[in-house]
Automatic annotation (TrEMBL):
Protein's UniProt name: THUMP domain-containing protein
Top-rank lineage group of the source organism: Eukaryota
Region ranges (Disordered): 1-42, 207-232
Keyword Lyase: no
Organism encoding this protein: Trichoderma aggressivum f. europaeum
A Pfam family annotated for this UniProt entry: THUMP
InterPro entries on file: THUMP_dom, THUMPD1-like
Alphabetized UniProt keyword annotations: RNA-binding
Chain ranges of the THUMP domain: 193-303
Example GO BP: tRNA modification
PROSITE patterns, per the entry: THUMP
Length: 337
């Protein structure tokens, strides 16, 4: 009886049950086919995926309104791009051109058929490119020079604060904006690289510890730069009113990331700044914004006082202040998200 019972428990492949085990296929994402590589490269060229060195704005929006939020913020970026930098908005080629209205139906159908037969050409990357990410209520608006993400966000929020009526709102579904002026990998070395690069314009930094190979590489770079060196902009590291070194606070945000912890990131970045710059969590001169998403880390530095006055760049709250001021109610403090 014991033998028959044990046989019934065994799988069809024998006592080890190997026939029931699922065979592992693929390489767990360790490699990509040539087609996948080409697709990723085309996406990167068109600005549809995050890459090291990207600049832009992290945008949060109302739940369930992704399509509308992306469209309205893209239109807002195009408006301010022309206003601040003289960048003309892209022309939609799908819209009929002037003079096409009188064209007969047969000719228009023939044109559509020819367009369908013709091979699709990759679209050129625009100055503003929305990037979809695997997070609900969040997307990234990638920007290109001459656009300055910090200046763009600042102007949008300033105008939102001036809005006197709900009818004048330019955005209905957008919440918080977080500028990013540079991006690197979300590793210890990547965070140190991007933070050092961004903070150098605002703070006196401790010297970076380098190995022999890195020192030799730096000497070569310095020699090459000295040949065609350009005038270096003056770095302002002191408060103009008090003539004291900038105080600062570090505000990290982690999204879909489990490698680094926020406290470790704060200590890492704070360790780069010289002690003459004091930490001030209540009223800092500068706020260091750190956005970590999956494998990428973006950093920017903004004015601490104005960042708080503009509700930490939450334009939905800023627009809401207009109605509250008219009704005599005090504006609600900006939430963390």
């Amino acid at each position: 009886m014991a033998d028959s019972a044990s046989k019934r428990k065994q799988g069809p492949g024998g006592s080890d049950g190997s026939a029931l085990k699922k065979r592992k296929e693929g390489a767990a994402g360790r490699w990509k086919t040539p087609a996948q590589k080409a697709k990723h490269a085309s996406w990167a060229e068109m600005g549809k995926t995050l890459e090291v060195g990207d600049e832009g704005i992290w945008v949060t929006y109302a739940r369930g309104m992704k399509g509308k939020a992306v469209r309205e913020f893209k239109a807002l970026c195009d408006e301010y791009g022309e206003k601040l930098y003289g960048i003309k908005p892209p022309v939609d080629e799908s819209e009929p051109k002037s003079g096409d209205e009188g064209e007969d139906i047969e000719a228009s159908i023939e044109k559509e058929l020819e367009a369908m037969k013709a091979p699709k050409q990759p679209q050129p990357r625009g100055v503003f490119s929305p990037v979809s990410v695997a997070i609900e209520c969040v997307f990234f608006m990638k920007t290109m020079r001459p656009v300055d993400p910090c200046q763009l966000v600042l102007e949008i929020c300033r105008d939102a604060r001036k809005c006197e009526s709900a009818k004048e709102r330019k955005c209905k579904y957008i919440n918080r904006l977080t500028p990013v002026v540079d991006t690197d990998k979300a590793s210890e070395k990547g965070v140190q690289r991007v933070a050092r690069k961004v903070l150098a314009s605002f703070f006196s930094l401790n010297e970076e510890e380098k190995g022999e190979d890195e020192e030799e590489g730096e000497e070569v770079k310095e020699a090459e730069a000295s040949d065609g060196a350009e005038e270096v902009k003056e770095v302002v590291t002191r408060n103009a009113e008090t003539d004291a070194p900038f105080t600062y606070a570090i505000r990290p945000t982690m999204r879909n990331h489990s490698i680094l912890e926020s406290q470790a990131v704060i200590k890492m970045i704070a360790g780069m700044v010289k002690p003459e710059h004091k930490v001030n969590l209540k009223n800092p001169d500068k706020v260091i914004l750190v956005e970590i998403f999956q494998l990428f880390c973006g950093v920017s530095v903004v004015d601490g006082k104005e960042w708080e006055e503009l509700k930490r760049y939450n334009i939905n709250v800023l627009y809401g202040m207009a109605g509250e001021q008219k009704s005599g109610k005090a504006a609600k403090p900006a939430s963390e998200e």
